[in-house]
UniProtKB/TrEMBL annotation:
Keywords: ATP-binding, Helicase, Hydrolase, Nucleotide-binding, RNA-binding. Belongs to the DEAD box helicase family. DDX3/DED1 subfamily. Residues 156-184 form the DEAD-box RNA helicase Q domain. Residues 1-124, 557-583 are annotated as: Disordered. Residues 187-373 form the Helicase ATP-binding domain. A motif (Q motif) lies at residues 156-184. GO terms for molecular function: ATP binding; hydrolase activity; RNA binding; RNA helicase activity. Pfam families: DEAD, Helicase_C. It comes from the Eukaryota. Residues 411-551 form the Helicase C-terminal domain. PANTHER family: ATP-DEPENDENT RNA HELICASE DBP3. This is RNA helicase.
Length: 620
């Protein structure tokens, strides 16, 4: 069975509606500088070189791998096993006891593939070993803030929570020995049915924090999509997980499939850029949890192939991104203008590492009597990431990058265990830097919104596997991606928004591992100086004197995309906006929920931030 969509395309017979990416022959990645050459010249990237990393990078390398399998993407069924509509999912028994669904959704002819297979984790060994990478000591004294009515107490172990045998087994298979701080708090809250707005640092385990309660809730209820009254060929999922990018949706799907293995809960992913027919057929086979990007979901809703009438759980990952000006209209359409049950009748879970107050205000429209949870210095970066800011003129950036890469190479850590992610501002810039790196002997690939989905998936796989240990990316790769062994994040071009910086550097230093983040700063980044200096200080980083001078000089607090100065950050970045005096001025109940609250967001024209079209277009 093909592991990814790009593989399934490569292996499929010719033709068959693959759209823009339907190449007749097996597609080999061609770097941009070779793409227009005759076939004989357009072959592989330059010969693989050993890229090595120094000092802190070795720390990362030595920690081992905690994430999903390399190259792990969703599997699509073959085109030949689609007959019969696939709707005949035999139901589990009724009642509300555990395990009342079949132990796996392999009803009828369909068999549930083992999502752990790619991990190379021998089943019998999963019992004792801790997830090899995570350093829980790093989280021991992490500050936690909760607000809202009747907040359920946190737990210290998974055993304290009644998640069900099958899910507990999968937690062991994942080698999660104890919950991370956000899981300790968020899972008990969600299990009581409360709405939740949760902020927690990058790489701290938010995916499981929203997946576990959803999966266990579906298992416990004994509900399943196939037992709901449904129109023919219309999928009626019980849970919807939305994320801003295709790759993140793919990743969440992979994770959710592991967590729901043999629970009877079926997870399906739908995202843009991949053939919709394959996704439709997956949906026809039955779906309990639908993971989707907003654009593709709207398409499915318009075709009346998905109904949201049975939604019991709505989760927005990267919720602040999902509700900012780029996505907000689509999200409102999905959540408020289709057939989804309103707040109070469904459970809504919003997660991110950053949550500007303006977005919190907006998000309150989607929530009912919710609990706000902030774990760690939210909106700040983890101290596990060593941040370096270097003053580099625009014209010197490439040679400076080359110096960095040569220094890494000189230091002898294997490339596969120390990947480098380089962020640039534009798609053209990504292509051009990738080309330049390749011709200079550094195997690189790129990911951005102008590449086909097949190319994007191929690039990510090639990076994860270490075949091309440098990935040049736009912000499309800034959020959520959990790529083991990313040892170094380089902000070749700094973003305009400090929250974007937080997410970008969060691709390293995940799950308790250490990481290095280097940024090239020059006068064009002056508006970021203050928030950058503040962020570094909060994270106990050494702030260069020249940056402090820049910060003192710059007076950009009132506008632009630097939201930190507008209440999104602060000493404890994830403060509940309901605690603001301005929120209560109108006599609103401080923790009354706010589902009927008019945020005034639109009237005021939104916060000054927003994303320029170049950035927005990098997203799905
Ligand atoms: N309880 C746990 N024990 C060990 N490892 C865990 C645990 N929970 C999550 N992880 C691992 O931690 C890593 C980071 O998790 P995840 O991707 O959910 O982070 P995140 O908080 O969503 O990050 P981001 O803000 O970047 O989206 C993953 O590799 C995951 O498998």
């Amino acid at each position: 069975m093909p592991a990814t969509w790009s593989e399934s395309v490569e292996k499929a017979p010719t033709g068959g509606g693959v759209g823009a990416t339907s190449h007749a022959s097996r597609s080999t990645y061609v770097p941009p500088h070779l793409r227009n050459r005759p076939p004989s010249a357009s072959a592989d990237p330059p010969p693989s070189a050993t890229v090595s990393y120094a000092g802190t990078l070795a720390g990362n390398e030595s920690q081992g791998q905690g994430g999903p399998a390399v190259g792990g993407f969703q599997s699509y069924g073959s085109r030949n096993d689609l007959s019969g509509g696939g709707l005949s999912r035999g139901g589990g028994g009724g009642g509300s006891a555990w395990n009342n669904r079949n132990g796996g959704w392999d009803r009828g002819r369909e068999r549930e593939a083992n999502p752990f297979q790619n991990d190379g984790v021998p089943e019998p060994e999963f019992a004792v070993q801790e997830n090899s990478g995570i350093n829980f000591d790093a989280y021991e004294d992490i500050p936690v803030e909760t607000s809202g009515k009747d907040v359920p107490p946190p737990v210290n172990t998974f055993a304290e929570i009644d998640l069900g045998d099958a899910l507990n087994m999968n937690i062991k298979r994942c080698k999660y020995v104890k919950p991370t701080p956000v899981q300790r708090h968020a899972i008990p809250i969600s299990l009581t049915g409360r709405d939740l707005m949760a902020c927690a640092q990058t790489g701290s385990g938010k995916t499981a924090a929203f997946c576990f309660p959803i999966i266990s809730g579906i298992m416990k209820s004994g509900q399943s999509a196939q037992r709901q009254p449904r129109k023919p060929r219309m999928a009626c999922p019980l849970a919807l997980i939305l994320s801003p990018t295709r790759e993140l949706s793919i990743q969440i799907h992979e994770e959710a499939r592991k967590f729901s293995y043999q629970t009877g809960v079926k997870v399906v992913v739908a995202y843009g850029g991949a053939p919709i027919n394959q996704q439709l057929r997956e949906l026809e086979r039955g779906v309990d949890i639908l993971v989707a990007t907003p654009g593709r979901l709207v398409d499915l809703l318009e075709r009346a192939r998905v109904s949201l009438q049975n939604i019991r759980y709505l989760a927005l990952d990267e919720a602040d991104r999902m509700l900012d000006m780029g996505f907000e209209p689509q999200i409102r359409r999905i959540v408020q203008q289709m057939d989804m049950p309103p707040p109070g009748e469904r459970q809504t879970l919003l997660f991110s590492a950053t949550f500007p107050k303006e977005i919190q205000r907006l998000a309150a429209d989607f929530l009912s009597n919710y609990i706000f949870l902030a774990v760690g210095r939210v909106g700040s970066s983890t101290e596990l990431i060593l941040q370096r800011i270097e003053y580099v003129l625009e014209t010197d950036k490439r040679s400076h990058l080359m110096d960095l890469l040569h220094a890494q190479r000189a230091n002898g850590v294997q490339a596969k265990q120390a990947l480098t992610l380089v962020f640039v501002e534009t798609k053209k810039g990504a292509d051009s830097l990738e080309h330049w790196l390749c011709i200079n002997g550094f195997p690189a690939t790129s990911i951005h919104g102008d590449r086909t989905q097949q190319e994007r998936e191929y690039a990510l796989r090639s990076f994860k596997s270490g075949k091309t240990p440098i990935l040049v990316a736009t912000d499309v790769a800034a959020r959520g991606l959990d790529i083991p062994h990313v040892a170094h994040v380089i902000n070749f071009d700094l973003p305009n928004d400090i929250d974007d910086y937080v997410h970008r550097i969060g691709r390293t230093g995940r799950a308790g591992k250490t990481g290095l983040a280097t940024a090239f700063f020059n006068d064009s980044n002056a508006s970021l100086a203050k928030s950058l200096a503040d962020l570094m200080q909060e994270s106990n980083q050494e702030v260069p004197a020249w940056l402090t001078r820049f910060a003192a000089r710059s007076n950009f607090g009132g506008g632009g995309r630097n939201r930190r100065g507008q209440g999104g950050g602060g000493r404890f970045g994830g403060r509940d906006f309901r605690k603001d005096s301005s929120y209560n001025r109108g006599g609103m109940d401080m923790y009354g929920g706010g589902s009927n609250m008019n945020s005034g967001y639109n009237q005021s024209g939104g916060y000054g931030g927003g994303y320029g079209s170049a950035v927005t277009s990098a997203w799905d």
